[in-house]
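Table S2 (continued). Query chain:
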Amino acid sequence: MKTLLGALALAPTLTASLLLAATPVVVQAEARTNIIASEFGVFEGADFRPSRTVSLAKKQGYGWMMVVDTPKAEVRYREEFILPASATWKGAPGQGVTVSADGRSAVSERVVRHDDGMIFNTWSVAEGDPKGRYMIKVLLEGQVEKTFVFDVE
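Corresponding output:
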């Protein structure tokens, strides 16, 4: 009888221990950044026009825009720009851009504040840029990638 009473006295402690062991642990996952919409195109004055063709005209502006869903105020992206042939990258190295030894690609990493989810980057045609197929790969927060392929003619 004494053993039974002792076991009953320990029952609340044993029950509480079992409940604690069975309580699920909630792990907070890092908030994911998602691309809602994206577009590549050219700039005509202040207007953006979706296009897969960029004129080789000097100073023709072009680039990409994305609408992202993220709880963060800033978005980190890595952009890899690949040309069809070597080119001279004027001004790029001093602006946080790493150019490959052969001049065919450049990589930039930036942290930008988004405007209601909108982020973008722009480039412009420079003297000596080659004709052909170009590619820009954008990696957001090390998770989501978008590739833009376009022709410069």
